[in-house]
Amino acid sequence: MERTQNGGNRILIILLILIISMSLSACTVGNDSENHSSASGITDMHSESDPADTRTVADLTVEDVPTLVPDVLKLREKKYEDIPFLETQDQLSEYALWNLLCGRTEFECRLSWDLSYDVSSVALVRACEEAMSYYLFSSYKDWDMYTEDDGNPDSVYGKVKLVYDAPEFDLEARLGAFRYVMENPPPEGGFSDYDEEREYAQKIHDYVACKVTYDPVGYEPNIPVSETRYDVLQEAYNVLGENQNTAICAGYARAFALICQYAGINCAWVWGNETEESSHAWNVIYPCDGSEPVLVDVTWDDGLSFDTVGQTDVDYSYFYIPLSSDYEHEADENMASFIQYINEAARG
């Protein structure tokens, strides 16, 4: 009887040891899971990073910037044939924008005879200009756009090749915009409330206006051959690049639109008010609730305030003005038509 009791005690002790061991293992697994889920947002965005990565947003480099630029209209979802046939200018401009958003600066197409303008490159040049409404980098040092009658009775062959002047500057501008959005996260899942989106856009407006001052060089459409658009302060880099603190209207508008697009705001770059001496650039936003497009002119708002680097005073006379009530901005007819077309197409 005593031997039986001792045996029962040993069995109980063994069971207790097994239970304790299993409990410790469960605690270890739980802690590992908790540690993994507490990784920083940067680690979540870059799955190849070490889960123990403790970098801050300030530590981001150009290598952290997404490979492709923002695509707020979701144009990259479109499908085209290798060399599509395009009948209208809007179709051609959309195709040019689609290629640029996909990271291609060289592409081919076939144009209707009406669109070829007697086998000239006019339509191709215009397509690339209109594509800059959403693809915000325009400083290419070399370009080759031509059409060719290759004997096809129904269409003309067309080709575009762009070589950018300083792509590293554009990447630095993208880093500046990306970093801003990482430091000021938009709502998860994107904007759905008009006022919330407007408030976020206002912060971008203030950031750009306070970061740079307007340079009196002015906006000159006909740039001398020896100067790049960076030299005359027309690019997003001139606002968002490191140690950059002066820009003109095109730089202001491109920088504002770039940050907006990284935040998921449907913002386009627009130019117009053209005279023999000058022209102007600003932005148009299509609000998330589908309401009327609004105008934002950071340049003029900056000029109406105490314009110094690091200022805190910003004017709002030209912020979120409904297009129907604006009378001081006259957009280029082709640009305005394309922006309207591309947004109507995106909304189905």
Low-confidence runs: 1-52
User: Element order, helices and strands?
Assistant: HHEHEHEEHHEHEHEEEHEH
Average pLDDT works out at: 85
Strand content: 5-15%
- Helix count from the secondary structure assignment: 10
Distance between the termini: 87 Å
| Secondary-structure content class | alpha+beta
Categorize the overall geometry. globular
Over all CA atoms, what is the radius of gyration? 27 Å
Largest sheet: 4 strands, mixed
The helix content, as a percent range, equals: 25-40%
In short:
This protein has ten helices and ten strands.
List keywords for this structure.
single chain; 348 residues; alpha+beta; four-stranded mixed β-sheet; 40% helix; 15% strand; globular; disordered N terminus
Provide an overview of this structure.
There is one protein chain. With 348 residues, the protein is α+β, with helices and mostly antiparallel strands. Helix content is 40%, strand content 15%. The chain has 10 helices and 10 strands. The strands form 3 sheets. A 4-stranded mixed beta sheet has the order 1-2-4-3. The protein starts with a helix and ends with a helix. Mean pLDDT is 85; it is low at 1-52.
